[in-house]
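hiii, so i know i said id send this last week but things got crazy w the move. better late than never?? heres the sequnce for the chain we talked about at the cafe, plus the structure i predicted for it. fair warning i was half asleep when i ran it
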Amino acid sequence: MSVWSLYLIQCNNGSLYTGITTDVERRFKEHQSSSPKSAKYLRGKGPLTLVFREEIGNRSEASIAEAIVKKLSRTEKDNLIKGTFLLQAIL
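okay and structure toks below
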């Protein structure tokens, strides 16, 4: 069984993209390549920086965590990245 992870990518313009995957390194490379497998939102917004990642568990748990993080304010996301806001505390 695969372990799913939540990740955040910062774009050149400072915006944040949130996603889930079983292989963060592979997925980040796909996003950087602007290939058909990359997220449309990220195309042309490079250079991209992987700023956060955390193993969550199964796909269902990761999807729930992704939805929660997407609803956080920018300040809360920045605190999550800095490690001063714990993801597990809100799950």
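btw DSSP finds four helices and three strands in the chain. thought thatd interest u
miss u guys!!
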